[in-house]
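Researcher: Go.
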Amino acid sequence: MQLAERLTALVEPSLDAMGYELVRLHLVGSRRPTLQVMAERRDGQPMSVEDCANISRSLSALLDVEDPIPDSYTLEVTSPGLDRPLVRPEDFDRFVGAQAQLETRRPLDGRKRFKGKLMGRDGQGGVRLVAAGSEVTIPLAEVARARLVPDEATIAAALRRHHPH
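Model: Structure:
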């Protein structure tokens, strides 16, 4: 099992027990690596600084005991934000109707970048996207990176959630 998989297996149950869901775990750098843990609240509420601090304290204690990273490292806990990465297959269904940008591992129809309205997954493991007026299906296995692209309505809704009047 690779280190990232071992870390995910350690971190996920702890986050789950605290009421959070792991969005993405990333170990970057080699000299003094940074373990990036992106999480969100299961109740759908926005993440606060306190949420990130609680997760950081809990995971620091867990990782100190388990010691899965041989060298010293930095733990960085973040929330997804408006340009949220789409990581799990179900993310593509959860955010149907949102604008998304996908990058493929190799060119499909001569291009690697697709931007459009997310239409969810089809039954054959493809992601449906309406881009430039026509629907394209990209095999999930070919998606290298995907993220939401916030539009004005998304930004306005987020501002109302964080600053209700």
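Model: The chain has two domains: 3-78, 91-154.
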